[in-house]
Design goal:
alpha/beta; 8-stranded mixed beta sheet; 8 strands; globular
Length: 319
């Protein structure tokens, strides 16, 4: 990736936080999404936000990050660029992230490749043009986990995939976000929305987990131990993080795959990033020195976050 951080935003934390809160996401008006509700194979639902391009246009599917949605800065930047290029764009919301709680006794998790599979296959079955897929942070890990799991059959569904600032080693990233400044700022931000959703899930399904233990959780490790891991078939946090991480499986990827990680990402320790020896020959790495976590701000204040989506989409289109 051709990226250099602006001089007035030094360091991964500033590049992360400023980009999420203040940087411009698009030129002109905000994307106007059309929402569809899809029934999942288990009878639950997800909501998909659309920007429809011309007939036969390429479709870009974007999977959001932890607690993200179509209002997230990266979603709007990708959507606006896709629309400007004459592409169709779709963002499927993981369960519980579209503004309405899902019905079943589950939510979503970082290795949810079965969910990715039925979503992408439905897009491929219903869309006449090419399908490309990208995932942000947690969504990118799940997407790469899917690509690894599907092997040679993945390219029957999508043309190419990209992960952006994804914690491909969940253990390393979970440890990083649970310490110091990360724990004080990012962990607190995530738990402020995750805990109320979990308690609402408990009201739907009494006895699903221990509410007192959930409220006592002070980091994602403890939250995952009480909620995410047991609800999705994992023994505990260690089992979840080990089995859901994409990194150990990436030798199985058989379609063009871009892996973009800033080397100063506060959530993703640089030593945890996969090496060329740990992935298949179909994987391309972009590892710029700066950018933060899904930041990559550009220009003078307030700056914008449009460069990264442009470069990622251009790579996907050329793959």
């Amino acid at each position: 990736m051709n990226y250099q951080a602006p001089f007035w935003l030094p360091g991964g934390n500033l590049q992360t936080i400023w980009s999420a809160l203040y940087a411009r996401r698009f030129e002109g008006e905000a994307p106007q999404f059309r929402r569809e509700r899809w029934t999942a194979p288990d009878g639950d639902f997800i909501d998909v936000d659309w920007l429809q391009g011309p007939p036969g246009s390429t479709l870009l599917v974007l999977f959001h990050g932890l607690e993200g949605n179509s209002s997230s800065q990266y979603a709007q930047a990708f959507a606006a660029y896709a629309q400007a290029q004459g592409l169709s764009f779709a963002m499927p919301h993981f369960r519980g992230c579209s503004g309405e709680l899902n019905h079943g006794p589950r939510a979503y998790h970082s290795g949810d490749f079965e969910e990715i599979d039925w979503i992408l296959k439905r897009f491929a079955d219903s869309h006449t043009g090419r399908v490309l897929a990208a995932g942000i942070s947690m969504g990118g890990n799940a997407l790469m986990r899917w690509a690894s799991e599907m092997g040679d059959t993945a390219k029957q569904t999508v043309r190419a995939v990209a992960s952006i600032c994804s914690p491909l080693d969940l253990g390393a990233s979970g440890q990083a976000i649970g310490q110091g400044f990360n724990r004080l700022v990012y962990t607190r931000m995530f738990l402020n929305t995750m805990k109320p959703k979990a308690l609402a899930k408990l009201k739907q399904h009494p006895g699903l987990f221990d509410a007192d233990k959930l409220m006592a959780a002070r980091d994602l490790y403890e939250f995952d131990n009480v909620f995410t891991a047991p609800l999705h078939g994992f023994k505990n946090t260690e089992d979840y993080w080990a089995r859901a991480s994409a990194k150990p499986y990436m030798q199985g990827i058989r379609l063009p795959a871009l892996v973009l990680n800033a080397r100063n990402d506060p959530f993703v320790p640089v030593q945890s990033l996969p090496t060329a020896q740990e992935v298949s020959q179909h994987v391309t790495f972009w590892q710029p020195q700066g950018g933060g976590h899904v930041g990559f701000p550009q220009g003078m204040p307030p700056g914008d976050v449009m460069t990264m989506p442009q470069q990622v989409v251009q790579w996907l289109m050329a793959a």
